[in-house]
Design a protein that fits this description.
single chain, 122 residues, mainly beta, 0% helix, elongated
């Protein structure tokens, strides 16, 4: 994590994980090797605007049986996630926010979610 100044922070992380899975009463098993890189940026401007962005990219290498293949994060292939959120404080009583999420798992279509919100306190 790198704090550029009190209003801006950058964080980068990478890693390699291994997992061995086996059904308790059967012979099905698998080995999963996961390599990933992720990062995030958090920024505040003039105490009215707040922006957060994060993204991660990973790759799964899988060997073995089809045990737990119904779980997207256990499949072989590329995994990607990204999130963007922004908040604008209009005044002391109201704010506007935007949130966008993207996700892609092996053998699945990409999913996109967008949320817009206006809040007013009475």
């Amino acid at each position: 994590e790198k704090i550029l100044n009190p209003q801006n922070t950058i964080q980068v992380e990478g890693g390699f994980e291994t997992e061995r899975g086996k059904q308790q009463q059967q012979t099905e098993s698998y080995d999963l090797k996961h390599t990933y890189l992720s990062g995030s940026l958090r920024s505040v401007f003039m105490q009215k605007y707040r922006i957060t962005f994060s993204a991660s990219l990973g790759y799964n290498k899988r060997e073995g049986d089809s045990f737990l293949l119904f779980l997207p994060q256990k499949r072989e292939g590329l995994l990607a996630d990204a999130n963007l959120s922004a908040i604008y404080r209009i005044n002391d009583f109201s704010s506007f926010s935007l949130e966008y999420r993207f996700g892609k798992y092996p053998e699945d279509d990409a999913r996109h979610n967008l949320k817009l919100e206006f809040k007013a306190e009475l």
